[in-house]
Design goal:
alpha/beta, Rossmann fold, 3 domains, about 15% strand
């Protein structure tokens, strides 16, 4: 990891992520989307054979007998995590919100579930059953009537037992063993076997990200949760932060993949050196050390003058995960404006949010936290506005509507209102 001084470094350049060359892969992804859109299952089967080495018909797999490879302790952990995630997301539920804007003019909002949703569960270098919980639980709480779950197939053409068990725990009965752009296309356009959905959720590699973005601008495709790229974490550490804590947090993201990013921001060069040294020690002992080492090549430590400066840099960077490992961390909450999910204090490691604290781990990356929030219950809902104008309300609001319609030279609009109050 490199160490930079804020006094000498180009901070704007440090906020730039490693470029993802979508231009290079978009033609290939477009080809997958076009063929799946035209040929359905046969195209999905062809691409699954080509990219995953699995030559089998496209079919859903039942999860009724899942969990056979999991011990009781693991199953208990799944249940506890599911309970926390459910509790947190259920608290986001909102009833009707009503307001009388003028006498006789009543407006209100009600939430409705998105009827058909597709959940993409990564399973490339490692299966991610926690993502099943993060997506399926709020989908069920929101009342989505149809939930389609896909995940890349195992070498045997099935699905990882941990993913199947997580799905079973959430009340989902079957999974489609499909991954990559072809899975996104199958959900966006529908095939003979895979139902078409209205919105697609879940992280993935650059091919999945490109496919999601392309189907989201196709009127025949599907909406998506958010653009999402490689995982990233930023740790703000004061002089009392333990270097081993900070190093472990950086490596928890670095082990995700070669494109992941870990950043530490501290106020002391001595501490910066200790963090880098500790990262090296801990990385060497990781089973996924080779992957983490690649991620560390574009990760760094930034030395700033104060925690205020650290927060300012974080807001400019807009990290997916932000760990505030400082004294009285909660005091800095009002100053944080751009982050996907924030972890306060030395014991709030990012892993807690990844698995079991209750917050969602499907979050905006690549600086999208400036404009997007993470997945929530509302992500699986749409709000519908209603208004009811009575006779008194027509007389109150009518002249206002008429005057504005006249300014826009929309005579039919004007007349529709005037007929009601004249």
């Amino acid at each position: 990891m490199k160490i930079y001084s804020a006094k000498e470094a180009d901070l704007l350049a440090l906020c730039q992520r490693k470029a993802v060359s979508l231009e290079a892969i978009v033609p290939a992804v477009k080809d997958v989307l076009t063929q799946v859109k035209a040929s359905g299952d046969s195209a999905v089967q062809k691409f699954t054979a080509r990219f995953d080495g699995i030559d089998t018909s496209i079919r859903p797999i039942s999860v009724a007998d899942a969990g056979g490879t999991l011990g009781a302790e693991v199953k208990t952990a799944f249940s506890a995590a599911a309970a926390n995630i459910s509790k947190f997301h259920q608290a986001q539920n909102t009833d009707r919100r009503a307001v009388e804007t003028m006498p006789g003019v009543n407006c209100f909002t009600e939430m409705r579930p998105i009827e058909k949703v597709g959940l993409y569960i990564p399973g490339g270098t490692a299966p991610l059953p926690s993502t099943v919980l993060m997506l399926a639980i709020p989908a069920l709480l929101a009342g989505c009537s149809e939930i389609v779950l896909v995940t890349p197939p195992t070498k045997q053409g099935g699905v990882a037992d941990s993913i199947a068990y997580a799905a079973q725990l959430c009340g989902i009965s079957q999974i489609y063993p499909i991954g990559g752009a072809q899975a996104v296309a199958a959900m966006a356009y529908g095939t003979e076997t895979v139902p078409k959905v209205d919105k697609i959720f879940g992280p993935g590699n650059q091919y999945v990200m490109a496919a999601k973005m392309l189907v989201s601008i196709d009127p025949q495709g599907a909406a998506i949760d958010m653009p999402a790229g490689p995982s990233e974490v930023m740790v703000i550490a004061d002089q009392n932060a333990r270097a081993d804590f900070v190093a472990a947090d950086l490596l928890s993201q670095a082990e995700h993949g070669p494109d992941s990013v870990g950043i530490a921001v501290c106020t002391d060069i001595t501490q910066a050196n200790r963090i880098v040294e500790e990262v090296g020690k801990q990385c060497a002992a990781l089973p996924r050390a080779a992957i983490a080492e690649q991620a560390l090549e574009h990760s760094f430590v930034l030395v700033v003058d104060s925690i205020n400066d650290a927060i300012a840099f974080s807001n400019s960077y807009a990290p997916e995960h932000l760990i505030v490992n400082v004294e009285d961390a909660a005091n800095w909450v009002p100053a944080i404006t751009n982050a996907g999910s924030v972890f306060l204090g030395p014991y709030s490691c990012e892993s807690a949010g990844d698995y079991a604290s209750g917050t969602n781990h499907v979050l905006p990356t690549s600086g999208y936290a400036r404009a997007y929030g993470g997945v929530s219950l509302a992500s699986f809902q749409k709000h519908i506005t209603f208004q009811q104008v009575d006779e008194q309300g027509a007389k109150t609001i009518g002249p206002i509507v008429s005057a504005l319609a006249e300014q826009e030279m929309l005579t039919a609009h004007q007349r529709a209102m005037e007929l009601r109050y004249e």
